[in-house]
Amino acid sequence: PKYIIPDCFSGFSPRGDRGGRGGRGGRGGFGDRGRGGFRGGRGGGFKSPDGGFRGRGGGRGGPRGRGGRGAGRGGFGAGKKVLVEPHRHEGVFICRGKEDALVTKNMVVGESVYGEKRMSVEEGETKIEYRAWNPFRSKLAAAILGGIDQIHIKPGAKVMYLGAASGTTVSHVSDIVGPDGLVYAVEFSHRSGRDLLNVAKKRTNIIPIIEDARHPHKYRMLVGMVDVIFADVAQPDQTRIVALNAHNFLKNGGHFVISIKANCIDSTAAPEAVFASEVKKMSAENMKPQEQLTLEPYERDHAVVVAVASPPITYTCE
Amino acid sequence: MLVLFETAAGYAIFKVLDESKLQQVDSLYKEFETPEKANKVLKLKHFEKFQDTTEALAAATALVEGKIGKSLKKVLKKVVAKEAHEQLAISDAKLGGVIKEKLDLSCVHSPAVAELMRCIRGQMESLITGLPPREISAMSLGLAHSLSRYKLKFSPDKVDTMIVQAISLLDDLDKELNNYIMRCREWYGWHFPELGKIITDNLAYCKTVNKIGDRTNVAGSDLSDILPEEIEAEVKLAAEISMGTEVSEQDIGNIRHLCDQVIEISDYRIQLYDYLKNRMMAIAPNLTVMVGELVGARLISHAGSLLNLAKHPASTVQILGAEKALFRALKTRKDTPKYGLIYHASLVGQTTAKNKGKISRMLAAKASLAIRYDALGEDTNAEMGVENRAKLEARLRQLEEKGIRRISGTGKAMAKADKYHQQKRKRRRRKRRQRRRRKTMTESGVCVHIFLF
């Protein structure tokens, strides 16, 4: 068993819910990148209006002050020892403590990509650092925690990531595939592209491509053959986009991991109907669906479908 | 049939050895399962390597737009034009049209061609001999980064890392300079202690020490370009009656080296400051106009980057730099600090102590707008900063006038102010009474509300 000394407090929260925390998640440690985010509590100098309904600042100030630290969710206190063990999926680990967390091995030691907690493990003389993976922010983490059977993203794999956004999940995929693998991160938005570029600067196994995924021939110069296509594009014609990219870049027998947002495909239909229609579309495009999983409780009306590139026609005559 | 295949390292032209295989699209992949089989179907005719990253970038941008770049034109003319009867298989139909138009080469793009391209991509390493796979991946990484930067219109003079590093270096230099100067004074003071008390300016001290070396040379040396006359005379006088000890040539030599270093570092510091001023004006002109280069640079450095600074609300910008005082006040429920790094801005410095808090708040608000304009805006001019600064200065003058009026106080002004204060007190009392009444009403029962309807 490996013991860990975590750096800061943990406790994941959905991105929207900031209620009990009073600001960005308890980053009391100024060692983390960038200072200046100190949104804890109200000023002590606040003078409440004459009695009235609210109590004096006292009642609120106290718990608020503590609330800025960890929203009383337990999680890891600084200096608590926790256990890290490998997950069923290769390259992914579980960190066990008062609360369990999904973690990946940090390829760039000492750096947080989006402010996530990091924990260090002593293994003899070497220190290995792990980064926590937030399932509320990453669909892939939600799928893993939901119990997906195979993610096909393993150390040494070549992954094409469509819809990379600011590179938060891409960084975790990069951690999993390790220095021998490659992640081709495709993102069309310029704002997110800037952040993606910054992430890719530190990690040499991420190849950033700021192009529309609808036209894979535009970036054919940069990409080789890949083993897995991960798609999180949230577009109504996403199946066609994935199919185009697969036709160009996916090896025979490669796999797909596609995240479907029901609202995005058709906001009027029921989610189950949308998922079923998407799966049908995929079968028509030479993708054989293998599993489907909803992302409750992390996301609403989302599903992840794992498929395999339809085996070559000659093999099907059995 | 020839095949044009673009890679990050260069253009590859293949010759199809066995065209009949292309007819069977579905089983084409079987021919490419192993490198040996692949080599039987295709042969590398020519590989045009990109000379450097600029050429690769130009080729990649041309490819994205569907145009023929210079290097592609060169390759096509050189290799394909010789076999004009052959068809050229390409991956992009639009590009094929352009090639046909410009170079009059017949191009073909079909599902068979697409499948062929796929297979080539799968066996890229073995088909393109003479190019180690490491090189291809390194080149594609470099090309991807350059292409993305080109797309995002990344301009190197808008990088705020320079500012952060420059200001840290400035602080480091100051610390080092101070240490060296103190050491120099102490060391030389062993030989000529009075000089330290006469010359207060550090740079002049070092220059003097450098020039005179041993104090016996003072009488003969001319210090008019370093020191003003009276001080020079004092120095000459003190050298005669100095109580310091004698030192050897070697010791003087070392002290001189130290002084050289000090002078060099001082010069470099001035240069660095100029550089910082230029960079600040280029990167954040509005912020520079509002608070000055040094304060602006410190704010950016404190927040980490210009974009980070832009994300902070104005209240944060106001007390950036005073975190220790802030959290202490929050914990013990006392008054929070009114200014942080902003205190050193000229606008805040030139007000009276009473108004510093007000000005700091106003300056932080306008500066925050200026920061956001600089960080996220499209064009870079300082108009907005100048306007805001003018507004602030006008407001500052207003505040000071009001203060002056208070002191001298015309009777009318005092009476008006008093009346306002009385009315304010009345309003407050009325509100308190209303609140108490409302509170007791809800406690006593609901019937009163129905009555109101």
Automatic annotation (TrEMBL), chain A:
Gene encoding the protein: fbl
Gene Ontology BP, a term: box C/D sno(s)RNA 3'-end processing
Protein name: rRNA 2'-O-methyltransferase fibrillarin
Main location: nucleus
UniProt cross-references to HAMAP family, sorted A to Z: RNA_methyltransf_FlpA
Species this chain originates from: Echeneis naucrates (Live sharksucker)
GO molecular function, one term: RNA binding
Swiss-Prot/TrEMBL catalytic activity: L-glutaminyl-[histone H2A] + S-adenosyl-L-methionine = N(5)-methyl-L-glutaminyl-[histone H2A] + S-adenosyl-L-homocysteine + H(+)
Keyword tRNA-binding included in the entry's annotation: no
Gene Ontology cellular component annotations, sorted alphabetically: box C/D methylation guide snoRNP complex; Cajal body; small-subunit processome
Keywords, alphabetical: Methyltransferase, Nucleus, Ribonucleoprotein, RNA-binding, rRNA processing, S-adenosyl-L-methionine, Transferase
Similarity comment: family membership: Belongs to the methyltransferase superfamily. Fibrillarin family.
Pfam families given in the database record: Fibrillarin
From TrEMBL, chain B:
Presence of the UniProt keyword Nucleus in the record: yes
Alphabetical list of InterPro entries matching this protein: Nop56/Nop58 (IPR045056), NOP58/56_N (IPR012974), Nop_C (IPR042239), Nop_dom (IPR002687), Nop_dom_sf (IPR036070), NOSIC (IPR012976)
Chief location: nucleus
Annotated TM spans: none
Subunit structure comment from the entry: Core component of box C/D small nucleolar ribonucleoprotein (snoRNP) particles; the core proteins SNU13, NOP56, NOP58 and FBL or FBLL1 assemble stepwise onto the snoRNA. Interacts with NOLC1/Nopp140. Interacts with NOPCHAP1, NUFIP1, RUVBL1 and RUVBL2; NOPCHAP1 bridges the association of NOP58 with RUVBL1:RUVBL2 and NUFIP1. Interacts with PIH1D1. Part of the small subunit (SSU) processome, composed of more than 70 proteins and the RNA chaperone small nucleolar RNA (snoRNA) U3.
Record-stated family: Belongs to the NOP5/NOP56 family.
Name of the protein: Nucleolar protein 58
UniProt organism field: Echeneis naucrates (Live sharksucker)
Gene: nop58
